[in-house]
Amino acid sequence: GGSGMVLPAAVRDRVAAVHRGSALPERLRLYDGWAARYEQDVAALEYRAPHLAAASLAFAFPAPPAGARLLDVACGTGLVARELHRRGFRCLHGVDGSAGMLERARSTGLYQELLLCVLGREPLPAPAEHYDAVTVVGALGEGQVPSTVLPELLRVTKPGGFLCLTTRSNPSNLRYKAELEAALGQLERSGACQKLLAQEVEYWERATTEEESTQGTGYISGVVYIYQKCPVPQLEEG
After folding, report:
1. The Methyltransferase type domain covers which part of the protein (predicted)?
2. Distance from CA of residue 39 to its chain's centroid?
3. Alpha carbons 205 and 219: distance in angstroms, whole number
4. Is the backbone peptide bond immediately before 231 cis, with ω within 30 degrees of 0?
5. What is the pLDDT of residues 33-90, one digit of tens each?
6. How many CB atoms neighbour CB 40 within 10 A?
7. What is d(CA 185, CA 157) in angstroms, rounded to the nearest whole number?
8. pTM of the complete model
9. How far apart are CA 167 and CA 205, in angstroms?
10. 3 state SS for 102-118
11. Residue 3 lies in a domain
12. Angle between helices 79-86 and 99-108 (to 10 degrees)
């Protein structure tokens, strides 16, 4: 079952470095340094989260997407924006903790607004109930964006708007994933939002180590969540 382990060693090392438990400033520095090679590396990883998340959000979306305002949190180089753009979303704002990543995102021309923001340390640079949807794709993981940011994501989401989140289901992220799901469950029970989708995906991306891979496939699995903020607008009678 080691057939999937043909990732170039350099790619493996770069990916492993950002997932290792380094402190936040060091991690952001790694992302700055990774920005130039990031898209090649994730292509080698066959990283499917941006595609899957954008497809799920587009499916949940009730209205034509062109007029919707979206916030892409931890937007990186703009992989999610590219997928959303292909599905008709045109008003995209992005935030990221890495200036190097934001520079790349800016060069795509896909965002109306890009701002530096270290989530978990500072609030989102947006007013309450501002966005029709907020996405966090790929950054919800051990040592990255803490699950305590969920209320802040909901704060900037309009009532009836959507949260689109992804996380990995590989062994080293299972504790984080359980925390994330517990936090989401708590928000749901409090009436803050409701779950529309929790889609487990087997082939999420290439594993960087044999231990992380699902049953020796050479891949790790992941999950896409879509939540809707309450109160959900009622359809007009008549």
Report:
1. 71-164
2. 15
3. 6
4. yes
5. 776 777 777 666 667 888 999 999 999 998 778 889 999 999 999 999 999 999 999 9
6. 11
7. 18
8. 0.83
9. 12
10. HHHHHHHCCCCEEEECC
11. no
12. 30
Is residue 236 domain-resident? no
Tokens of 90: 């045109």
Domain count of the fold of the chain? 1
Is 189 among the domain residues?
yes
- Percent of the chain clearing pLDDT 70 (strictly above): 90
- Six token digits for residue 159: 């009532």
Give the domain CATH number at 51: 3.40.50.150
Segment 171-183 mean pLDDT: 94
- What pLDDT, on the 0 to 100 scale, is given for residue 235? 67
Least reliable range by pLDDT among 2-6, 20-24, 58-62: 2-6
Which amino acid does the sequence have at 171? P
**Measured CA angle at 197 (ends 187, 98), to 5 deg:** 70
Write phi, then psi, for 11 (nearest 5 degrees).
-65, -45
Strands 91-96 and 69-73, by their bridges, are parallel
